[in-house]
From TrEMBL:
The lineage of its organism: Bacteria, Pseudomonadati, Pseudomonadota, Alphaproteobacteria, Hyphomicrobiales. It comes from the Bacteria. This is DUF1214 domain-containing protein. Gene3D superfamilies: Domain of unknown function DUF1214, C-terminal domain. It holds the Pfam family DUF1214. Residues 72-171 form the DUF1214 domain. InterPro entries: DUF1214, DUF1214_C_sf, UCP009471.
């Protein structure tokens, strides 16, 4: 007597629950389809255009962020090191190399929601292309660590998992034709804990 209504109720719960969870998963996973990957860095160049898919538009509306226009800039995110390990606040890292050509770039560590990690006011919580020391060949090395490091140092609070956000402003990389052959800096692990 109650078997058929029970089976219908279970089917509806699975259908609606699965649909809602899959939609939330897609909205929280990225800013849309069409990601490009350069080493450990990923970007979504179509997210800021009218051609963006519905998920990208929903993600942008949910986050309440304005994205850069195609000619303005491109944001790259790295959440893993070169060996594929998740970036964690108890480890130390270094970014080595150079960025693609850009008039200006910024770098900071962010939480899962994309917000910059909070550091004490006197510690360097971000860097930009005009504030770092460079080698004679134009490359640079930035240490990312919870403890102070010589040279370019990005202070890292013990915040668990995090991502690095590199924004290139006024760059040919923002156009789809400029993505081929770009050189991105490497994200290498120095050590974790007391190593």
């Amino acid at each position: 007597m109650f078997r058929v209504p029970l089976l219908i109720a279970v089917a509806l719960v699975i259908a609606f629950g699965g649909g809602i969870l899959s939609a939330l998963s897609v909205l929280n996973a990225s800013v849309g389809f069409g990601a490009i990957r350069l080493g450990v860095w990923s970007a979504f160049p179509q997210a800021q255009t009218d051609a963006a898919d519905p998920y990208a538009k929903s993600h942008r509306a949910k986050a309440g962020r304005l994205l850069y226009g195609t000619a303005e800039g491109l944001t790259f995110t790295a959440s893993h090191d070169e060996n594929g390990h998740q970036l964690i606040g108890t480890c130390s890292y270094r970014i080595v190399g150079r960025t693609p050509v850009a008039r200006f770039w910024t770098l900071y560590a962010a939480d899962a929601a994309g917000r910059p990690l909070a550091t004490r006011a006197e510690l360097p919580g971000s860097h930009n292309s005009q504030s770092i020391l460079r080698k004679p060949d134009g490359s640079f090395e930035i240490a990312i660590s919870p403890t102070a490091q010589p040279g370019n140092w990005l202070a890292l609070p013990d915040a668990g998992r995090f991502s690095l956000v590199l924004t290139l402003l006024d760059t040919p990389a923002a156009g789809s034709s400029g993505l081929i052959g770009l050189e991105m800096p490497r994200v290498e692990t120095i050590g974790c804990g007391n190593e």
